[in-house]
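pinned: reference chain
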Amino acid sequence: MWKEFVTVSGAWIQAVGTVIAAFATIEELTKEQYAKEKYEIAGNALQAIGNALQVIVQPGKSLEKMGGELQALGNTSVIIGVTLDIYEKDTINEVLEIVGNSLQSIGAGLAAIEELQDVVVSSQIEAIGNTLQSIGNGLQALQGIYNIEDEQEEAQKEEGAKGTKEEELKEEKQELMKENSNINGMNNKDKKEGKDETIGDAGSWIQAAGSVITAIGTTIGVEKKERK
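pinned: its structure tokens
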């Protein structure tokens, strides 16, 4: 009986975690400094706890259990990446988040594969939920890759602009150079503020929806077992 309770509790804790993490995509809730990071850390911490609880009570070895372990590991990787990013912006932190989301995507996919083999309705519901979670995490990982590519492209442009600026220093007057520097700064600022996170934001909410569906399927499955 206690194992069923832990399983259902873990599923819903994970679901709550995905919703909290998705709150990080809402601009109105992330205006304060590090508000976005706080939602992401808290959400992934709950997901890790939820996944761990479900893994603990699952007997033997299975794709679903392995999937839960990968998801918990992925949550931990995301937490580390986001936390480190608060103290120092570095590409390696974004890589940790990409790896974390990728592990979660693979884990949810493995769970869905096993659940699809079961004809029970509750298992089919869980399979749908885990498939959505896999897609959602995959989109978040993809967004991370795009972000790194954009940052590298921007850094290369800044290097080129720096070289051009040094040549202009020799040829143009100081007053004109300050003017050009201010214009370049405004352009860079506008580009940064216009960063597109649509793919990652959509992925967060798809994952959240999938997690809730999975929790519903888990609850139905446990209730049916208790009636027998």
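why pinned: Residues 180-194 have pLDDT under 50 and may be disordered. The two ends are 13 Å apart (CA to CA).
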